[in-house]
Every structure is written in structure tokens, then in C-alpha cells.
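Design a sequence for this backbone.
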């Protein structure tokens, strides 16, 4: 990662033991990289699924909440983890200039219901989500001013409960399918932007030990490799529930710019309240 001034300044405002730049170096023979198995990570993983990268790395794919736990347990060395988990690490390092963010509407993280927002009495929370659930709570209490009952879920059955005054937070590829079914769709990234004027960062690449500058440069290059092939990557997925070309190019933001890091900072500040 480039040690630019904005990153260094921002790192000082992250949780006390979270850093953007390494202090020491660790050497690993085969680095395990935990990534999210959603469509939005396909461009990031494009440069990691080649023989050269896989000679020194192993990819582990799962949904966001599991990747965070795998990092904590040492199952993976680097993980694309929900931003909401950053304060839970005793010490953490953001090791890439890339992640999963949205400048406006993200399309794949939404609250779905059959009634308007003010009439929702119960919300079922997607079991695959951490940052999205935290964002929903912030929007409810800080901006929407609603207090429905929140229900944790454990399996895919929760989507069938979107009826009457019961709503559900749905993330990832399943959100595209749910968009076709629900009457009301509240895009959480768009709502966040409307209230704060900032982008929202959903996930960042994190390690619990510092990585070498050489490795960070290589890892950034791997993340960047797919950015010039978004149309080709979209076409290769053969996905019909949503226009992936539009999704990759206009809904998802991959580079962690200064403005996007400001959005992350604001989210972490509000997260302390909850």
C-alpha cells in the first residue's frame, strides 16, 4: 500500500490498534487469503486466480461474517472482512488500497418490505452480514427514527418472512433476486449517502499481523488486475437477475479513495455508540 499522507492521517483515527501501514514484517510460505464468495468480489479476485499468485497464496471463499471469524481464528492470514468488525480486533492492519464500497446506491444491500418504512414492525437480519446489520441499526436510530424489533436469523428461510409489517435485510447476490419480489426496497448505501454525504465502505482487506511492503504492492496489483476487465468479468458470470456490467462499473466502488476512507471513519465513529 502506498504510504500516502491521507492514509497515514486516517490510520490514526481508526480504532487504536488498527493500522494502515506495517511496523514489522512477517514472512509466510503460503499466505491464506479469505475472500467473500459474492459476485461483487469477482473483479478483485480476477488477478488472484492465476497460477503465479496461487503458487504462494491459497484462496478461501466464504460469506463475510465467516471470513472475519476465520481471520480471528488464524484460519486465514488476510481477509476481506466487514468494516464493522474492525473495532473487534485487538490489533489489525488494512493491507490494501482496495475493498468493497459504494458511492451511492449499492443495489445488493437492501431492506425489503411490503409496507413503507414507518409501518415496519419487525426486521429479520441477514445472517451473512455484519457491516450491513450495523449500518441498518445506525440508519434506524440516527436517521430514520424507527424502532422495529430486530430478529437474528440462521438460514435462508428468513426471506420468506417478508410479509405484512415484517421486513428483512438481505445482502449479496440474493438481494438481486429479492428486488424482483418486494414492493419496497431501501438501499442502505444510498440512504447513508443521503444522510451523511459520504460513500459507504462495506469491507476491507485486513491482516492481524503486518505484511511486508513488497507483499502489499503485489497484493494491490492483484486487486487492480480486474479493474480493466469489468465488462468481460460481468459477461463471464452468465447472470440474469441483475445487469452485472452496471453493477461492477456504477454500483460497486473498489478503490479506497480519500473520500471513501472518510466514509469508513464516519461509520466507525457512529458504530461506537452501538
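Sequence:
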Amino acid at each position: 500500500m502506498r504510504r500516502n499522507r491521507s492514509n497515514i492521517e486516517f490510520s490514526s483515527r481508526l480504532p487504536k490498534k488498527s493500522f494502515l501501514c506495517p511496523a514489522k514484517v512477517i514472512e509466510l510460505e503460503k499466505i491464506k487469503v479469505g475472500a467473500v464468495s459474492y459476485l461483487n468480489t469477482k473483479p478483485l479476485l480476477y488477478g488472484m486466480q492465476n497460477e503465479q499468485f496461487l503458487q504462494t497464496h491459497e484462496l478461501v471463499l466464504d460469506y463475510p461474517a465467516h471470513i472475519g471469524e476465520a481471520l480471528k481464528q488464524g484460519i486465514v492470514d488476510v481477509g476481506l472482512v466487514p468494516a464493522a468488525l474492525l473495532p473487534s480486533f485487538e490489533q489489525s492492519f488494512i493491507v490494501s488500497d482496495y475493498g468493497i464500497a459504494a458511492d451511492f446506491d449499492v443495489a445488493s444491500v437492501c431492506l425489503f418490505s411490503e409496507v413503507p418504512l414507518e409501518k415496519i414492525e419487525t426486521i429479520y437480519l441477514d445472517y451473512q452480514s455484519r457491516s450491513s446489520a450495523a449500518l441498518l441499526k445506525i440508519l434506524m436510530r440516527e436517521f430514520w427514527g424507527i424502532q422495529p424489533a430486530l430478529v437474528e436469523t440462521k438460514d435462508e428461510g428468513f426471506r420468506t418472512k417478508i410479509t405484512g409489517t415484517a421486513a428483512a435485510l438481505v445482502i449479496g447476490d440474493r438481494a438481486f433476486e429479492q428486488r424482483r419480489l418486494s414492493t419496497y426496497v431501501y438501499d442502505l448505501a444510498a440512504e447513508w449517502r443521503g444522510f451523511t454525504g459520504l460513500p459507504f465502505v462495506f469491507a476491507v482487506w485486513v491482516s492481524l499481523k503486518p505484511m511486508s511492503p513488497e507483499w502489499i504492492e503485489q497484493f494491490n496489483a492483484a486487486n487492480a488486475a480486474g479493474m480493466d476487465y469489468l465488462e468481460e468479468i460481468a459477461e463471464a458470470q452468465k447472470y440474469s437477475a441483475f445487469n452485472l456490467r452496471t453493477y461492477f462499473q456504477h454500483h460497486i466502488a473498489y478503490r479506497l479513495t480519500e473520500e471513501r476512507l472518510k466514509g469508513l471513519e464516519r461509520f466507525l465513529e457512529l458504530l461506537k455508540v452501538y
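The chain has two domains: 5-102+199-271, 109-196.
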